[in-house]
Amino acid sequence: MENLKLVLPTLDMEKEALSYRQEYIDYGETYIHGSAGLMKEEDYKLWVEKITYARTEKMPEGLVNASTYFAVVGDRIVGTIQIRYRLNEFLLNYGGHIGYGVRPSERRKGYATEMLSQALEICRNLGLECVLITCDKDNIGSARTVMKNGGILENEIPREDGGITQRYWITLK
Ligand SMILES: CC(C)(COP(=O)(O)OP(=O)(O)OC[C@H]1O[C@@H](n2cnc3c(N)ncnc32)[C@H](O)[C@@H]1OP(=O)(O)O)[C@@H](O)C(=O)NCCC(=O)NCCS
Q1: Closest C-alpha among 17, 5, 78 to residue 48
Q2: ∠15-16-19 over CA atoms, to 5°?
Q3: Which long-range contacts (CB under 8 A, 24 or more apart) does 117-123 make?
């Protein structure tokens, strides 16, 4: 899919970013996966500053460096994806190296599969050899996205909320 690109969010993308967020709200969704909290952040400029810090500066104890990208097709943001550079205890069990979301109106067009494929290339360039991706057992679309990118299920971990987290590894070689 040549037309989809992962780009680092910039201040001039505010209008598109806010409309991306608004669409989730309009569809009744309360969380934007792979967006580093874009749903909750009131000030777009602050959000850009925060994700830039997380990419470039030393993080406080317990937090890991990460890069957050917009997936764009032309001028339109179709998804968000975050790459965490290493795993802490929580990420090892539940969060994984990569989180992603596709805006509701753009789902089932192959975008998540392509976003993950491009993110894995970035992981390769970061020197990662194995990438962990987790998803809820009920999230068939996400599980398919991971498996289509070479994910092998390691195990399933029950969560306190009663759900089950599946843990998949992708080997980059
Ligand atoms: C999960 C999500 C990222 C998938 O994005 P997408 O762009 O629709 O995925 P793709 O179009 O690349 O589809 C990947 C595969 O999953 C399948 N799929 C996607 N959504 C599906 C659904 N709701 N039910 C069943 N299969 C689904 C597709 O058919 C495709 O498989 P196929 O090629 O074998 O047919 C998207 O639904 C989303 O953003 N959900 C909310 C956030 C989320 O769950 N993020 C992941 C957290 S781990």
Answers
A1: 17
A2: 90
A3: 117/149, 118/4, 118/5, 118/6, 119/6, 119/69, 119/81, 119/83, 120/149, 120/170, 120/172, 122/6, 122/67, 122/83, 123/83, 123/97, 123/98, 123/172
Burial class (CB in 10 A: 0-12, 13-18, 19+), 119: buried
Ligand 1 atom with the shortest distance to the CA of 134 = 48
Whose structure tokens read 């789902």? 107
Q: How far is the CA of 156 from the centre of ligand 1 (A)?
A: 19
- Say yes or no: CB of residue 140 within 6 Å of ligand 1: yes
113 alpha carbon – ligand 1 mean position (Å):
8
Go through the domains of the chain in sequence order and give each one's CATH number. Answer: 4-171 (3.40.630.30)
Q: Per residue in 88-110, pLDDT tens? A: 999 999 999 999 999 999 999 99
In this structure, the chain runs to a length of 173
Q: Which pTM was predicted?
A: 0.97
Which pLDDT does position 109 carry in this prediction?
98
- Other beta carbons less than 10 A from residue 94's beta carbon: 12
